Amino acid sequence: FETLDFGYNLLEGVVLETHFSNLTRLTTLKASHNRLRFEPNSSWILPFQCQIIELGHWHLGPKFPHWLKFQKNLSVLDISDAGISDFIPPCGEWMEVLYIDKNLISGEIPDCWNRWQNLEFLNLGGNNLIGKIPPLGHSKLFMLILRNNTWIGDKFSFLNILNLQSNNFDGRIPHKICDLLNILILDLTHNNISGTIPKCFGFVTNMDLSTNTLTAEIPKEIGRLVELQSLNLSGNLLIGNIPYNIGNMELIESLDFFSNLNFLNHFNVSYNNLTGQIPTSTQLQSFENLSYVGNHLCGPPLTKKLLELRNQNEEI
Question: Of 131, 154, 177, which closes a domain?
């Protein structure tokens, strides 16, 4: 078995087929974060069978690299930001990690899910993909990034990270999101999602629903997310009061002793239509005015100057 690793060097130039001709035992090729160009002849076949190929930031396009279809043992593939503007060809067998983000790949992803039962990391962001992902059933998927595409799927039973930012999703947040029992990071920012905020999030630590058109009140159930560290609801159409229990979220950490740690380190509800007083004696007083601007709120931490400015704008 052989490994070739020269990643993160910012190398430039052209890689030729002859550079690989003697690497018949190569199983791992790690060369991401260089600016190399590789455009082999269409009839060229790699002289090795790799398990890991990382060529992120190379120039491999505009066609999807045809030579990859001959790699039968491939489990990790990174060809992100590689100038590919083609369709995705039929899939391999044992994929565990797939990064093809920051290309201009279009069309629908092939139905590979029955073969990809061990897939854990999938990053397809920054492409022009459309359609839906077929149900994954018992997939082990841990991270899914789809930003800047126009589709979504369901039944991600092991999913911890869901990033759907900057798409064209509209309608309501589907109730199926309540089935994502292991979700830790949820990012739906910069879409056109409407309706209400679900009440069913389990162990989320970071939630960003900003820059949508969500309406109604902030559900008090969010205050029960005891491990929540970051919450951004800015740029929506939310109304009503800030739930009194949001600022009291605590993470109990047990080492040799028990201690209550106030753990909410990012909070933003700006530019909604919230009213009333900001709950006092909570962490909410530790955030800056910008976290609350563009509402009809009062009380600390809002400064007198900010309140006067808001009143002047309302009079105008």
Answer: 154
Number of domains in the chain: 2
In the three-class reduction of DSSP (H, G, I as helix; E, B as strand; rest coil), residue 247 is classed as helix
Position 140, amino acid? K
Specify the CATH number for the domain of residue 113: 3.80.10.10
Residue 152 pLDDT exceeds 70: no
pTM of the model: 0.66
Binning pLDDT at 50, 70 and 90, where does residue 261 land? very low
Query: 178 by DSSP, 3-state: which?
Result: helix
**Token digits of residue 315:** 């009079």
Residues 6+ apart with CB under 8 A from 82: 55, 56, 57, 58, 59, 60, 61, 100, 103
**With bands split at pLDDT 50, 70 and 90, how would you rate the model's confidence at 279?**
confident
Report the phi/psi class of residue 83: left, alpha or beta, with left for phi > 0 and alpha for psi in -120 to 50.
left
Residue 112 sits in which domain range?
1-154
Same domain, 169 and 145: no
Q: In terms of domains, do 224 and 139 share one?
A: no
Alpha helices by DSSP H, listed for the chain, are 304-315
CB 301 within 8 A of CB 289: yes
Whole-angstrom Cα distance, residue 125 to residue 119?
16
Closest by Cα among 279, 231, 220, 227 to 250 = 227
Structure confidence by residue, pLDDT tens digits, 40-54: 988 888 899 999 999
> Do 269 and 297 reside in the same domain of the chain?
yes
Tokens of 312: 């002047």
Q: What is the dihedral of CA 235, 241, 244, 247, to 10 degrees?
A: 20
The answer to whether 258 touches 250, Cβ cutoff 8 Å, is no
Same domain (yes/no): 147, 189 = no
49 plus 90 within the same structural domain: yes
Q: Do residue 63 and residue 128 come from a single domain?
A: yes
Kindly write down the DSSP assignment for every residue of 94-123, as one continuous string.
Answer: --SEEE--SS--EEPPP--TTT-TT--EEE
